Amino acid sequence: MARTVTPLTDSRCDAARPRDKDFKLSDGSGLFLLVKANGSKVWRFKFKRPDGREALATFGTYPATGLKAARTKRAEALELLAKGTDPIEHERQKVIEAAQSSGNTFKAVALEWHASMAGKWSKGHAARVMSESEADLFPMLGHRLVAEIKTKDLLAALKLVEKRGALDLAGRLRQRVVGIMRTGVQRNMIDYNPALDLLGGTAAPKTRHRPALSLERLPELLQRIEADTGRPLTRLAVQLTLQVFIRSSELRFARWDEIDFGRSMWVIPGERKPIEGVKHSHRGAKMGTPHMVPLSRQALATLEAIKPLTGRFDLVFAGDHHHWKPLSENTVNKSLRRMGYDTKADVCGHGFRTMACSALVESGLWSRDAVERQMSHQERNGVRAAYIHKAEHLEERRLMMTWWADYLDANRQRHVTPYEFAHRGKSASNVVELRA
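That's the DUF4102 domain-containing protein sequence above. Prediction below.
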């Protein structure tokens, strides 16, 4: 037979005095007043969760929360349980929703951080950052209060990305989380950035080098390009890629109006007008700023050979079936495979950049800044970048691109090392005198 419980009264609650140990004063239906040994009095509600587990909820302290208020909370909890809802989880969700409206959650701070950074990024990069955050950060962290997030919580989200093998993405997300939590510090939500301790918490991706031929094999490559039996435009695309060593998207989406034949200059814009139905067609120079490519007489000759094929269209490398669409992104590599190369082990289109960079450096003729600028690499040193970001080294780069094209010609029959080609004697036409 169940024990009869006499409901509490305010006077009984007031009169309750602490003892050596905590004790309870029951009001029935799971509600009781816990009188602690230190003198404090706390309303507790004992219940079974919808899944059958026992649980305890706290309704506040007495007398701040009176008997009537405690009973009202019990009634609300019993009503939720009747509907199959856990009262504790319900309250937690209410706190989360309140936090979301106040802007103190990880997602709210992440959105603020993203808005502050978007002006420095291209539209495509900003969209990608948001998409990756929504997919891999917000599901686990978005609803959490920034003040409650620990390093282990951030690491748990990154570990899920690492687990599926996306190590590069995990590294990018770690860097972004540092920025997001730094915003929390700056807004006085937290005193310390817990993301600073994430370094080394996930596996580092293996450095992947794009395959490139040794310069000794240049004669072989040049002869195979010349003998290629594929589509003429494809052969010319491979030839131009080697001559100007730009990135695949920079080449594929090239427009004729970017090329100034009079100045022997190709200016690749930071962003191009998108082509409907063509993914990533808005891409221009990778760094998002115009990239100048001085054109050697050999590169100009290649473009002149392309003109009869596509000069009436907007795109330099118009597709086979639709002139408003570019060649496939696999065109150059497919051509190299037809020539007998393994594009995963021997050489790929991107590997031409490695070969050109190696030759330019090994020649000993060109400054590091000029080579890096022509490779369209971004200066990693922030202080140095502040001083050289406007330096184009254009005249040196004109000479350099001509030297590279001449070097390719010199290797058509037999291999000549870059240093040998650059230092044959002061009277040689391929030696460039640079100012000290």
